[in-house]
Amino acid sequence: MQDIYVVGVGMTPFGKFRDKSVKDMAREALNAALEDAGLAANRIEGAFFSNAVQGHMEGQHMIRGEIALREMGIQGIPVVNVENACASASTAFKLAIDFLKAANGDCCLAVGAEKMYSDDRALMFSAFDSGWDVSNGEQVAQRLADLGAGVEEPEGSKSPKPYSVFMDVYAGFARLHMKTFGTTQEQFAAVAAKNHAHSAHNPLAQYRDSMSIEQVLAAPPISYPLTLPMCAPISDGAAAALLCTGEGLKRLGLDPARAIKVKAAILRSGTDRPPEDFKNHLTRLAALQAYEQAGLGPEDMSVAEVHDATAVGEVIQIENLGFVEFGEGGPASLRGETKIGGRIPVNPSGGLESKGHPVGATGIGQIFELVTQLRGEAGARQVEGAQNAIAENGGGLHGVEEATACVTILGR
């Protein structure tokens, strides 16, 4: 079976762009990826287009990719639409890999674009309401609330303003972690402060102002223990990746020195498990599969991008990826082990909390960052000597964990 390489990446700034459409952002990201690779659009033999909420926000269902990409010359080839909640883009990336491994072509595109921000705030926040089982939403909400039973919520620690229902989901996970391991709100705040410091050096990030732990803790509350800077914002944006087989690299005359090898890509759905059975969390199991596929371990990773839709997400995921023992994610973050220059830099892009989270583009945004790091082209946020990198991207909720997750390992 042939090796697969990322040969071009492109990403728009993430933020709030009232004047840009899904088409506009997809075009910008794709053109950047084509320029990065030195390829023409007519060399692409298959495309996977990721988007999660355009149907909800604009009423554009079913053929989003065909519509978004046709004007860019992507026509006459397979175009597959991918919707897998917040893991949509990493799923599209995985499917592009599988397309090439199945010998369907030598060059394939994975692109995600999302326009989420709206002046209609009720419409905007309700985009997340179907990310769990809508047939028993009240029961799901109560079950998540019960996860944190026994952890007191201080008065005034819940926002009176509208916010995504998934912030309550993560708050439940956070309080369970606090109850089980003694994790503190300060440790979660350390994650957010670190990511805001990283994003100050990312010109494509939605937020670029550094924050201290004290500032994070003093910020407006969302759902205890989460404050506003600990939570990913509503974002618009797009990201694209071009992948080639080893033979395609030669046939297309691409520069092998800038090609980044895909060493593993694992996509899983969740399973039924007790909430305290952390060792069988779906991303823990996906990570173990990915390490086996790559012939590597956590100790071989130079840098990671993880799904920090909130700060607790990063704490949970660095444990699932094996960087620390279960329960040690909070203390390790407070000690600075996950900052650039630390033992294992996590989210040098600023993560979802600061870089932004246009859900249909997020997973490929992570790939963009890791390819940039492995090429040594990340500037002031560069992780020195990066050789292997891992991305974790999860989506939705089913039971007591994400409904789906993808773990990808890239390397030189």
From TrEMBL:
<feature type="domain" description="Thiolase C-terminal">
    <location>
        <begin position="278"/>
        <end position="399"/>
    </location>
</feature>
<dbReference type="Pfam" id="PF00108">
    <property type="entry name" value="Thiolase_N"/>
</dbReference>
<protein>
    <submittedName>
        <fullName>Thiolase family protein</fullName>
    </submittedName>
</protein>
<dbReference type="InterPro" id="IPR020616">
    <property type="entry name" value="Thiolase_N"/>
</dbReference>
<dbReference type="Pfam" id="PF22691">
    <property type="entry name" value="Thiolase_C_1"/>
</dbReference>
<dbReference type="InterPro" id="IPR002155">
    <property type="entry name" value="Thiolase"/>
</dbReference>
<dbReference type="InterPro" id="IPR016039">
    <property type="entry name" value="Thiolase-like"/>
</dbReference>
<dbReference type="InterPro" id="IPR055140">
    <property type="entry name" value="Thiolase_C_2"/>
</dbReference>
<feature type="domain" description="Thiolase N-terminal">
    <location>
        <begin position="4"/>
        <end position="209"/>
    </location>
</feature>
